[in-house]
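Hi support team,

I've been running sequence recovery on a batch of backbones for a student project. Most finish fine, but this one hangs at about 90% for roughly twenty minutes before it completes. I'm not sure whether the input is malformed or the queue is just slow. I've pasted the structure tokens below so you can try to reproduce it. Let me know if you need the job ID as well.

Thanks,
M.K.
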């Protein structure tokens, strides 16, 4: 009895049969004396379908190479993609995504295993590490060259074979192969033209690798030690080797001693899971201070106050400003807790050498008996905060960070402080304002709170780790931590650098500079 073909093969076979029937129905002479000629657009669409499907099948079947990269055995594959980029799969630890290029093809690199002989050689002869960057660059160059040649053969063969199966005419089959080669060449040119070797500065981690952000070095080391792409790639390979060598024990993150670490959280909205997440991040990153930009509560009632009791045991000083869901009752209760610093009306506090000033939200929206005053009230609060910042600057104690719940109020501090933090909108935004102040808006660390169960999709949990230079107290880099919302178990860490901190960039103006046109924007603004 004949063995039935697998489902994907049967699907491809049926698609080929339909293409053949369509082509024959368009090109077979009918019994009548009239000859029907297919419309040019129909023929072009059919040929494009054959080219794309054939090229994809060719890449799927033979478009990958196995190549050694340093001490590791890898598989490199080109895949069709709308956004391009490079994805490095480090099974079973997770994956690393780099925005390396923009093209309709993506480079997938699967780290299969460590080669025992090469790994042992590195352990026994550590002096070989110094030459690892050249070895890795050579291995990657050889692998990508072989992959390019194999991919060309794969797409041409696949498109030609499918064209011959559909059209049964050699000329059309060769035309399909030629078009497939042209398409791949154009994609390669696009990838080359948009190649971004500095994409390793902002990797995106997923899986267990999100627990090891040091896989490409700490933020300060990235800024001061980054030279060329090959060197950073060599460091990546070396650190991944260490991860494998450690088996189930991931390396501990070792922060630079000259870097202060601030954890920015916001809009917890009574989600008790947030405290466990914050405590874990404090321990993992060695956080110096936690800054909460408000809306810790939902209704601001006295009955909710017990929710705040875990804060003193989070492992770091807790700086808090009132949000529009936090009442005066909430603020009074927090002010009595150990290790908590409540800021309002421009009050400032110095923690770990970092001076932080802030103000509470002027509106308490759960109180339906009071009509909300909207953005005008927020702007006035921001203006008062800016005035307090100027007074502190004149007194010789300038603030390093300002905090307000609503971004409308935070924007009024432009030019008075290097960095201002806000929340409220439940999504992230980062922007350098006209006079040099960087505005960072955090998403909801509580995933929108317990009310998120009412939404069709769970809201993600967001927090950020900010790295500041201990001497200048300026932002050097930040990690954006994103976790799956209620019922999800995904994790992702994205590292970002201000544009003025990337190698070769021109420093941005200090707050208050008279040349606002030179202000740099690190990330595009989101939409509310």
């Amino acid at each position: 009895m004949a063995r039935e073909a697998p489902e994907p093969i049967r699907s491809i076979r049926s698609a080929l049969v339909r293409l053949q029937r369509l082509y024959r129905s368009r090109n077979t002479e009918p019994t009548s004396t009239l000859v029907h000629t297919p419309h040019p657009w129909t023929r072009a669409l059919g040929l494009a379908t054959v080219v794309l499907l054939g090229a994809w099948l060719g890449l799927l079947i033979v478009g990958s190479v196995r190549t050694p990269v340093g001490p590791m055995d890898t598989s490199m594959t080109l895949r069709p993609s709308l956004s391009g980029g490079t994805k490095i799969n480090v099974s079973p630890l997770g994956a690393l995504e780099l925005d390396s290029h923009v093209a309709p093809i993506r480079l997938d690199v699967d780290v299969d295993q460590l080669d025992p002989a090469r790994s042992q050689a590195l352990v026994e002869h550590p002096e070989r590490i110094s030459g690892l960057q050249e070895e890795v660059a050579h291995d990657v160059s050889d692998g990508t060259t072989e992959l390019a040649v194999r991919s060309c053969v794969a797409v041409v063969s696949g498109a030609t074979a499918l064209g011959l199966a559909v059209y049964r005419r050699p000329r059309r089959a060769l035309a399909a192969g030629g078009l497939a080669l042209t398409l791949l060449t154009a994609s390669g040119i696009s990838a080359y033209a948009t190649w971004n070797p500095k994409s390793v500065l902002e990797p995106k981690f997923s899986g267990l690798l999100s627990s090891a952000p040091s896989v490409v070095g700490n933020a300060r080391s990235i800024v001061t030690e980054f030279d060329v792409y090959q060197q950073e790639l060599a460091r990546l390979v070396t650190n991944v080797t260490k991860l494998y060598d450690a088996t189930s024990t991931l390396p501990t993150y070792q922060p630079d001693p000259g870097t202060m670490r601030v954890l920015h959280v916001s809009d917890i909205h009574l989600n008790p899971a947030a405290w466990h997440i914050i405590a874990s991040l404090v321990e993992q990153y060695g956080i110096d201070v936690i800054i909460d930009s408000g809306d810790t509560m939902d209704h601001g009632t006295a009955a909710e106050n017990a929710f705040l009791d875990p804060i003193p045991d989070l492992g770091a000083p807790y700086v808090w400003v009132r949000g529009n869901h936090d009442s005066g009752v909430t603020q009074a209760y927090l002010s009595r807790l150990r290790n908590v610093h409540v800021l309002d009306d421009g009050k400032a506090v110095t923690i770990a050498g970092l001076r932080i000033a802030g103000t509470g939200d002027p509106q308490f929206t759960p109180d339906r008996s009071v009509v909300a005053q909207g953005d005008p009230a927020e702007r006035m609060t921001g203006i008062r905060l800016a005035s307090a910042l100027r007074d502190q600057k004149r007194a010789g104690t300038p603030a390093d960070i300002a905090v307000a719940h609503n971004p409308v109020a935070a924007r009024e501090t432009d030019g008075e402080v290097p960095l201002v933090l806000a929340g409220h909108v439940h999504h992230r935004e980062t922007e350098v304002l006209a006079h040099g102040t960087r505005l960072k808006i955090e998403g909801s660390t509580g995933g929108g709170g317990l009310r998120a169960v009412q939404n069709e999709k769970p809201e993600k949990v967001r927090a950020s780790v900010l790295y500041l230079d201990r001497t200048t107290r300026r932002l050097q880099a930040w990690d954006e931590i994103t976790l799956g919302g209620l019922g999800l178990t995904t994790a992702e860490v994205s590292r970002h650098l201000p544009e003025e901190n990337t190698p070769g960039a021109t420093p941005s103006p200090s707050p208050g500079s008279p040349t606002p046109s030179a202000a740099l924007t690190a990330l595009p603004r989101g939409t509310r």
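--
Follow-up from support: It reproduced on our side and the slowdown came from queue contention, not your input. The domain at 231-366+374-500 is CATH 3.60.21.10 (Purple Acid Phosphatase; chain A, domain 2). No action needed from you.
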